[in-house]
Design brief:
This protein is mostly beta strands. It has helices spanning 2-27, 102-111; strands spanning 35-38, 44-46, 55-61, 72-79, 88-93, 97-101, 120-129, 137-138, 142-147, 157-159, 175-177, 184-191, 196-197, 199-200, 209-214, 217-220, 225-226, 233-240, 245-250, 252-256, 265-266, 268-270, 275-282, 285-292, 298-303, 306-309, 314-316, 320-327, 334-337. Strand 20 (252-256) and strand 21 (265-266) form a beta hairpin. The radius of gyration is 26 Å and the shape is globular.
Amino acid sequence: MKKRYLFFSLCLSLLLTGCETDNKKYYAAEFTAPELTTPAAGTRLTLTEAGQNDSVEIAWHAADYGFPASILYTVQMAKAGTYFESAVKIAETKDTRIRTDYATLNNNALIAGFVPETPAEAEFRVIATVNNHLQSLHSEPVSLSLTAYNVSVTYPILYVPGSYQGWNPGDPETVVTSPKANQVYEGYLWFTANTEFKLLGQPSWGELEWGSGGDGKLAPRGSNIVMSNTTAGLYLLTADLTGLTYSATPVTWSITGSATSGTPINLNYDETARQLQITAPLSEGQFVFQETGADNRTLGVYFSNQLMDDGSEIIIPAAGEYTVTLNLSQYPYTYSVE
């Protein structure tokens, strides 16, 4: 009897060991991340509008999960040193290579925050995904020098028709934009009292339509989102189509800095021009735009008259009376000083 028990115990032990080995093989030990092969590290890539139809290939060695799997690859690009926190998706594919034209790559570079006509280090990586039960595998990033050219950027937008603008689904000035092209949208809109609105993925009523899902939630083809605001005002509207959530927060804007002697000067909203404006005496010095009420964000110069979060200060060369205008109708936000 002892021999039988010993033999049974030995078989059970071998069986459990085999299962453990299989688990390690298929679910942990032998995962191999994808590896970027093209473009090579250190490549210098100068994009030009004249060559916008030229293209570049991005290729990689396949990931290996230890068993046959249908793998989806996501190619990302980001400014070096940002740890891909603001990465832009270039493409998704089940192949191990893509080809993207310079115009598309340039648009993605500008979305990622690259300053036009200025060489900067870019990082590329590939993410392999099978399903929600298995971990995603990230390639090591590959760095190269990239120079983008200046052009109007095409950002994903959602139209926001509502009672505040006559329920016009195609109004290009009542939209929210996804600055990172990541399904998260933002925009500043002037809502009249008791505003109701919806979100559209196209400039007409149709399939891509989101309404209220209750308590800050969005629902496809949902009912009108009701603000219940008793007075008119400027609101920061955000919408996350992945998490199906939204928020609308009243805000004000001001200019502040040495040109205002350190005292914020509030901007007034012009409902006809759909922009913020103030005419006021300014000292020689600098200022930035300051939002109050939502994220308390600060906007400064990014490129030309375009603004970005925590950008450079705007310079006032001499004391005098100036008209300062802030245009928040579409991203990137812009300004003028006259």
